[in-house]
Structures are given as C-alpha cells and as structure tokens.
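ENTRY TYPE: protein
CONTENTS: sequence, structure tokens:
***
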Amino acid sequence: ESTMLMFIIGMSLLYSYVMSYLHISQSAAEWIVAQQLSKWMLLTTILSLIIVLGFFLPPVSLILMTAPIILPPLKAAGFDLIWFGVVMTVVMEMGLIHPPVGLNIFVIKNVAPDIPLKDVIWGVMPFLGLMFVAVILLCLFPGIATWFPDLVMGPAS
C-alpha cells in the first residue's frame, strides 16, 4: 500500500514536470489573461483553471507554474493578493479532493483499504460543498481572509 501511494505521488510529480515542460498550465493562464475579462469574470476563470489543474498537479507545482502569470492581472484588477492567496489555497485543496483524479482520494483509499473507493468519493462531497461555500463567502466578504494580516502588518497600501 505504501508503495502504491508513493507511485501515485511520484507519477503526480512526473506529470507536473511534463506539464511544466510543455507549458500547458502557463499557456492556459496566459490565454485567460489575454481575454480582457471583467474583474469578477477574470477571478472566476482563474479559479476554474486552478481547480481543474488541481485535479492533476500538486499545489506547489501549480503555484510555481501559474502565479507569475495570473498575479499581475489580479493586482491590476484591484484584488488583494493576500486574500487571493487564501482563496487560491482553498481552491487548490478542492482540486486535491475532487474526483476523478484528486490525489488525496487515493491517499485516503490507501490508508483505509477496506472502504470502497466509491464511498470515499461520496464521503468527500460534503467537504467540497463546504469549501465552495467558503470561497463564495471569501469573495463576498474579503475581510474574513485579510483581517488578521491587516491587524498584524497594517492594511495593505
């Protein structure tokens, strides 16, 4: 079981390398930025890209491949980058537990091999719903994500 789990993680890293080498995620992010979308449509499109890429890529790879491309347009649109980092983290984790390829689903399956994969997938659905609601709340009330950094470091200028 441990070997199978390590192979899944290893193949995920290999897949990440191949996607980076072929510039797939970078090209998708550049295409989204080139569309000249409205502020909230840009955010929705970027978060959709992140969740889809999160099915296949680990979060660190996803951040390294997309952040340099998507952050400047988000900042120009007036989004707080600390707030976006919180939202992006939640959305990346949604990708990790979302079928069909969510890496954490297979981790859970290997930890509890007696539970059928179908039950594991249905078991993560309430969490996906809650995370989706959290993202919507963070978009409606950005102060939820930024009040503590503003308290510690002062408001961003």
The first helix runs from residue 2 to 21. Helices lie at 2-21, 24-34, 39-56, 59-76, 81-97, 103-111, 117-140, 143-153. The chain has one domain: 2-145. Residues 2-145 form one domain.
